Amino acid sequence: MAKYESEIKFLPQCTVEQVYSKLANLESFRPILENAANNPMLAEKLKEAGQDPAQLEKLKEVEITNDSISFPVPMIGLMALEIVEREENRCIKLQTVAAPVDANLWIQVLPVSSGGAKMRLTLKADLNMMMKMMIGSKLEKGLDKLADMLAGLPYQMM
Questions:
Q1: Rounded to an integer, what distance in angstroms lies between the CA atom of residue 35 and that of residue 57?
Q2: Are 87 and 106 in contact (CB under 8 A)?
Q3: Is the pLDDT of residue 76 over 80?
Q4: In the chain, what is the straight-line distance between the N-terminal and C-terminal CA atoms, in Å?
Q5: Taking a C-beta distance cutoff of 8 angstroms, is the pair 155, 18 a contact?
Q6: Residues paired with 4 in a beta bridge
Q7: pLDDT band for position 93 (50/70/90)?
Q8: What pLDDT, on the 0 to 100 scale, is given for residue 33?
Q9: What is residue 100's DSSP assignment?
Q10: Rounded distance, CA 158 to CA 152, Å?
Q11: Backbone torsion region of residue 85, taken as left when φ is above 0, otherwise alpha when ψ lies between -120 and 50, otherwise beta
Q12: Are 86 and 44 in contact (CB under 8 A)?
């Protein structure tokens, strides 16, 4: 299995308990997705960045439960992740359910001695050598972007 790790992200204003409680319940993301899908300012920012604001409509196709999330992926179809293990205030492990590749995503959250929390994402994917060469760097960049997005969430207000 190919292994990819995000950079460590620091969340100085959040406790491990705040972060873990939101990430361990995927339903916590429903209001964020709904707000993003209907946000005209976000659509304008996408347009300014040269991207198609119609992409926000795809957020309405995301299905979420407490333990799983599924979403459409271009040229692949529906992809789903489900939480397979929770280690309270430490780690959440997700696994692909409906995907062309077997993969696991670990979200590790730890306290920082000076206060706050830190987070690291680890992705392990069953890729053959050709797939590693084709998409390995994209997976690594995508994992870092996901870590940035998760680190930027307002956990105290969710």
A1: 11
A2: no
A3: no
A4: 34
A5: yes
A6: 123
A7: very high
A8: 87
A9: S
A10: 12
A11: beta
A12: no
β-pairing, 117-125 vs 103-111, is antiparallel
Q: Which of 156, 122, 158 is nearest to 13 (CA)?
A: 156
Longest dimension (CA), the chain: 45
How far apart are the C-alpha atoms of 121 and 6, rounded to whole Å? Answer: 5
> Each residue of 98-109: pLDDT tens digit?
788 899 999 999
Q: What is the rounded average pLDDT of the residues 68-97?
A: 92
- Torsion, CA 31, CA 143, CA 101, CA 57, rounded to 10: 40
Nearest to 10 by CA among 79, 97, 110, 98: 110
Q: Letter for the amino acid at 63?
A: E
Q: Distance between CA 126 and CA 92 in Å, rounded? A: 19
Decide if 107 contacts 90 (C-beta within 8 A). Answer: no
**What would the DSSP string read from start to end of 56-68?**
GGGGGG-EE-SSE
In this predicted model, what pLDDT tens digit does every residue of 1-30 receive, in sequence order? 899 999 999 999 999 999 999 999 999 999
Of 42-51, 57-66, 84-93, 131-140, highest mean pLDDT: 84-93
